TrEMBL record:
Oligomeric form and interacting partners: Homotetramer.
PANTHER family: ATP-DEPENDENT (S)-NAD(P)H-HYDRATE DEHYDRATASE, ATP-DEPENDENT (S)-NAD(P)H-HYDRATE DEHYDRATASE FAMILY MEMBER
Gene designation per UniProt: nnrE
Keywords from the named record: ATP-binding, Isomerase, Lyase, Metal-binding, Multifunctional enzyme, NAD, NADP, Nucleotide-binding, Potassium
Name of the protein in its database record: Bifunctional NAD(P)H-hydrate repair enzyme
Family: Belongs to the NnrD/CARKD family.
EC number(s) reported in the record: 4.2.1.136, 5.1.99.6
Annotated organism of origin: Rhodanobacter aciditrophus
Binding locations of (6S)-NADPHX: 66-70, 135-141, 167, 266, 327, 374, 441
Positions bound to AMP: K411, G412, A413, T414, S415, G440
Length: 494
């Protein structure tokens, strides 16, 4: 799938139905189901002790399902070790099956305090909280009682408690990554397989650290829905290796086309991003009144206006990459340039208002291409609402890839990168400093650069997006989330 990235850096992610199938197959093979719940509790308890060596008191918040059952196993194991345990029981009806059995075992310890008053968590002396309210059986919207319990856990964490979530942060829809109200977890111990929603939207923000315990579940060898790219990968595999015996031609050429009146900065930033990402040569094609600004800022970037030279004449070879869109606008000038783009061949990155024109003209790309929509642009391309896109980021990105025959980076707190073969990579660590105009322009230039020297759109898209995110996180640590400007991440690429 990715030739430059070893598989060990790719975490396979699954949908709930795959996890349920493996769970059922395991129950069938073992002839019972409680053993797996017990292994889940043991694994959790091991991780709790690993992070809290001198644990004296444990607060365990449990719902009525099997997620709560796992929590009750932990409560019993801790009580066995002489740790003081308080169980906050938030079930709304009697437990059944494995959870009922786990309750019987746990409530058999008279050292375990049991309360239904979640408000008391605030005064609990424990500084370690187990969140076993809701797991993969959660279906939104959340009930008022459980919403109160989630709020109580978050409040406790805000006061300094360490929170471990059983399988997933309660309130998270592990399919979509959405959670209107969800637990913020220092650690998530997830079972059988990593789930998609841990790495998307609210899930990506709420899960500070995730460990997966397979619980010896039967492996049905289903193809993962997606992979998460471990952020550390680029520390070990730098994106643009400079070869000692190389020249500018070794690293390819990018032309950036964009920057209508009022939007010159977008195109200038994209061309600067391509240059700083190590591409051999960069041309900027923009409105003539922006040329001097570009020359002043980046004399290494050749710049011309489409009134002076044809777009095709800026391309240096059949492998020159065209980045179209940053600041392109929606005027006559913009449309003329979109048409000029359609008359060219060769690899392309289509961003910002070029995605608007792509939607208007509607034809497949017909060339190696990477599209870089945010959810709003994705919604326009698929003629649906942004809410529809957020309900299924992976499926939406795949639909765009199929419709326009291209690689797609669906941008967000974490980004979803897909190709036409059904490969899906989710990447990044949320970086709020990037929630500013200009972040996308910088990304498009970086994708253009990676495409210029890798030649393979999926690889280029994955590596550029991961690189952009990694540099932004580094930059924001130094400069600050509020004041960091997106182009500043370009000083943290190496
Ligand atoms: N051996 C095993 O069974 C193992 C289970 N594992 C753990 O189990 C959970 C999945 O357990 P499940 O019981 O299927 O579901 P949950 O516990 O996540 O949730 C079901 C309970 O939650 C209630 N619920 C659901 N949605 C809401 C909502 N919006 N508001 C309030 N309450 C909600 C639901 O109530 P119902 O009224 O809908 O029945 C249930 O009470 C999994 O995540 C693991 O932690 C392990 O995998 C080990 C083996
Ligand atoms: K949970």
């Amino acid at each position: 799938m990715l030739t430059r990235i070893p598989e060990r850096y790719l975490v396979p992610l699954y949908r709930v139905e795959d996890v349920r199938r493996r769970e059922q197959a395991s129950f069938a093979q073992e002839g019972e189901s409680y053993a797996m719940m017990h292994r889940a509790g043991e694994a959790l308890y091991r991780h709790i002790l690993h992070h809290n060596a001198s644990l004296k008191h444990l607060s365990v918040v449990v719902g009525g399902g099997n997620n709560g059952g796992d929590g009750l196993v932990v409560a019993a194991l801790a009580a066995q070790d002489g740790i003081e345990v308080t169980v906050y029981d938030c079930s709304s009806k009697p437990r059944t099956g494995d959870a009922e059995y786990a309750e019987k075992v746990a409530f058999g310890y008279d050292t375990i305090q049991i309360t239904r008053n979640i408000e008391a968590l605030n005064q609990d002396p424990g500084q370690v909280v187990v969140d076993g309210l809701l797991g993969i059986g959660f279906h939104p919207p959340i009930s008022e009682d459980l919403a109160n319990a989630i709020a109580a856990i978050n409040q406790k964490r805000a006061q300094g408690a360490w929170v471990v979530s059983v399988d997933c942060p309660s309130g998270l829809d592990v399919e979509t990554g959405r959670g209107a109200l969800l637990v913020e977890a220092d650690l998530v111990v997830t079972f059988i397989a990593d789930k998609l929603g841990h790495y998307l939207l609210d899930g990506a923000v709420a899960c500070h650290q995730i460990v997966m315990e397979s619980l010896q579940a039967v492996d049905l060898l289903n193809r993962p829905t997606a992979y998460f790219l471990t952020p550390a990968v680029l520390e070990n595999y730098p994106p643009c290796l400079r070869l000692p015996n190389s020249h500018k031609g070794t690293y390819g050429h990018v032309t950036v086309l964009g920057g209508d009146l009022g939007f010159g900065g977008a195109a200038i930033m994209a061309s600067e991003a391509a240059a700083k990402s190590g591409v051999g040569t960069v041309t900027l094609m923009t409105q003539s009144r922006h040329l001097s600004a570009s020359l002043m800022r980046n004399p290494n970037v050749m710049c011309v206006s489409p009134e002076d030279i044809g777009l095709g004449d800026t391309l240096r070879s059949s492998e020159s990459v065209l980045v179209i869109g940053p600041g392109l606008g929606r005027t006559e000038w913009s449309e003329r340039n979109w048409q000029a783009f359609l008359a060219t061949e060769g690899p392309a990155v289509v961003d910002a208002d070029a995605l608007y024109w792509l939607g208007v003209y509607g034809q497949p790309m017909g060339r190696p291409a990477v599209l870089t929509p945010h959810p709003g642009e994705a919604a326009r391309l698929l003629q649906c609402s942004t809410a529809d896109i957020l309900e299924d980021l992976v499926g939406s990105a795949q639909q765009i890839a199929t419709r326009f025959q291209s690689v797609v980076i669906l941008k967000g707190a974490t980004s979803v990168v897909v190709n036409q073969n059904g490969d899906v990579v989710i990447l990044g660590q949320p970086c709020p400093a990037l929630a500013k105009g200009g972040s996308g322009d910088v990304l498009s230039g970086m994708v253009g650069a990676c495409l210029a020297y890798y030649h393979e759109p999926f690889e280029a898209a994955v590596i550029a997006a991961a690189w952009h995110n990694m540099a932004a996180n580094k930059a924001s640590l130094v400069i600050g989330q509020i004041s960091m400007q997106p182009y500043q991440l370009l000083d943290y690429l190496e």
